[in-house]
Amino acid sequence: MAFDTQAWLAEARALIGSAHVLSADRGDDLSAYTRDWRGKFQEPALAVLRPADTGEVQALMRLAARSGVAVIPQGGNTGMCAASVPVPGGRPQAILQLGRMDRIFEIDPENNTATVQAGCILQTLRERAAAAGRLFPLSLGAEGSCQIGGNIATNAGGVQVLRYGNMRDLVLGLEVVLPDGERLDLLRGLRKDNTGYDLKQFFIGAEGTLGVITAATVKLFPAPSAGSVAFAGLDSIGQAVRLLGAMRARMGERFAAFELISGDAVDLVRRYFPDTPALLERRWPWHVLMEAADGGGDEALREAMQAALMACLEEGCVEDVVLAGNLGQGRTLWSLRENITHAQQMDGGNIKHDISLPISRIPAFVERMLPQLRQSFPGARPIVYGHLGDGNLHFNVSAPAGVAPAAWQERTGAVNRLVHDAVAAMRGSISAEHGVGQLKRHEMASYKTAAELDVMRRIKRALDPQGLMNPGKVL
């Protein structure tokens, strides 16, 4: 029997209200929901569904299961791998947009937890936690629009993973609606619970392919009262790795962030943001941006940071360094790191890689890969930066001068093979914090073992036997 679009839409509208079921047939503009953030993927959707609570999500999932409609959970749609937009062909696909589910149920300072709906904006949670004297440490460029459910579904990382871990480390409990509409209540604020399988881990990083995350209990931490930021120049990545070890040994748990930035990345930022100050006296091939934080005073922390850096200078772990004198100067230092992505967008075409490696192997990887790229793709401009403290590099390759962005994107497969094969040879991962989505789905077979893929498919079949959840993603 042919699928009756109008009957399905009418039933969905009866469940959650007509205003919250958007569809092209009545003139609604769905482009903001059906196109990924990078503008690489766009396919039509049957509807955009905007539920207000978990009960409405359950009702919509029961409707989808009964009618065979695929469901694509979507948060802020800020992901890098097109995991939250439709794929070509197949059954009708409805986007389940969770933005209306944005309540913060509880900030519990004594337990150092927050319980929120999946549609809660990351920045909102950070601000509410700060008002209670607490820190929610996940911080990334899209925090003003990304949502907690999406952060969990992609296992987001950010700049403070070195100290606090990624999203998987920050989640204590989840509420999930399964593909058949059943509610799975794992919403507990416990740090110890050894009663069988840790079911929440199936859904963290699964990119909405196993169920819909509707709420979460996450860890909070005492808000730091002091911070200190430094920017250093180095001759090599090997020197940066030595500096990381030396600073962690001296600063301990106070050491929160350690970002690697290539000289080419700094040059690119200065080209498009000419007001960026010259932070060091000369150009260095590599830089690191470091931050420490604790519950003491700014001056005491700054003195400790200065003493550690002076010792590193004497040991040859660093060549040149500037230490921010106050909060404003610290923000200036961070602005250079934060503007790399914007500068790349302004510069034109680049092929992005979000890779992770054992920290000890990163120098060898970069030293081999840079000349190989330039030999295989003359004029290519590698822009390397990222979270060296946790082994995650954004190893992006900008188009040669004069090459149109579209023409450069046609080389994506060849560039990816060169980079990803080298990553795999060093026992690394082709996705550190951006996920797989539909962008990297076809590469999974090359970089995951047959046994790993088989187990993943068994889990998918067990939880989603109809294949309703986010088809065409991950597997």
UniProtKB/TrEMBL annotation:
Keywords: FAD, Flavoprotein. Its cofactor is FAD. Residues 41-223 form the FAD-binding PCMH-type domain. The keyword ATP-binding does not apply. GO terms for biological process: respiratory electron transport chain. GO terms for molecular function: catalytic activity; FAD binding. InterPro entries: FAD-bd_oxidored_4_C (IPR004113), FAD-bd_PCMH (IPR016166), FAD-bd_PCMH-like_sf (IPR036318), FAD-bd_PCMH_sub1 (IPR016167), FAD-bd_PCMH_sub2 (IPR016169), FAD-linked_Oxase-like_C (IPR016164), FAD-oxidored/transferase_4 (IPR051264), Oxid_FAD_bind_N (IPR006094). It holds the Pfam family FAD_binding_4. Belongs to the FAD-binding oxidoreductase/transferase type 4 family. This is FAD-binding oxidoreductase. It comes from Parapusillimonas granuli.
